[in-house]
Amino acid sequence: MCYNEFMRLCIFSGTFNPIHIAHLKMAEYVLKNFGFDKILFIPAFKPPHKNYNPEMCSHRYKMVELAIKDNPNFEISDIEYKREKKSYTFDTVTELYKQFKIDGKINLIIGTDAFKQIETWYKTEELKKIADFIVFVRENSEVNLDYLKNRGYNFKFAPMEFLDVSSTELRERIKNGRSIKNLVTKEVEEYIQENGLYKD
């Protein structure tokens, strides 16, 4: 992949444990409606706010790879795997500005649940100067985040219909022997089965 031309880049960071259809629909919506050239999926190596299971790292990465392989505008990055430290967004965005020629600012896809916690993030004051946000409403009620705009966070809402799918729910389904058909891609479903993931 050639990175010599300027591009509008949006990144989608997450644990992706596992990646599911809501993740993909969100990325497709952003690509279609906000004019980005590329959506860069970045699986977290050591998520700072979640329990870290080193045995799942390679599996999570591979499932993202499988899920996005058919979209030429989707790409996966191992930037946080190479670092092998806690996956802080500020560090990742800073490094991406060195790797890509960026048109404007790098944008981040984020849900309202995480965005409400943005002021607790590592180097948040610096982060809001170098990144903008595409915010997905994760609740079925109205959300007012004007207070964050007043504090210097630049964001736009993505008014996509709420999809009530979560990785936590999928792991519970698998553990209880229930189907996850149509909630993940066929390739991801087969990978989970072949590798016996989330059984306990």
Description:
By secondary structure, this protein is of the alpha/beta class. Helix content is 38%, strand content 16%. It starts with 8 loop residues before the first strand and ends in a 5-residue tail after the last helix. The chain is globular and about 45 Å long. It is built from nine helices and six strands; from the N terminus they run E-H-E-H-E-H-H-E-H-H-E-H-E-H-H. Strand 5, helix 7 and strand 6 form a beta-alpha-beta unit. The model has no long low-confidence stretch (mean pLDDT 92). The protein has a single domain (9-165), classed as 3-Layer(aba) Sandwich (Rossmann fold), CATH 3.40.50.620. The protein has a six-stranded parallel β-sheet with strand order 3-2-1-4-5-6, sandwiched between helices. Helix 4 (89-99) packs parallel to helix 6.
Entry summary:
The protein contains 9 helices and 6 strands. It is α/β, with parallel strands linked by helices.
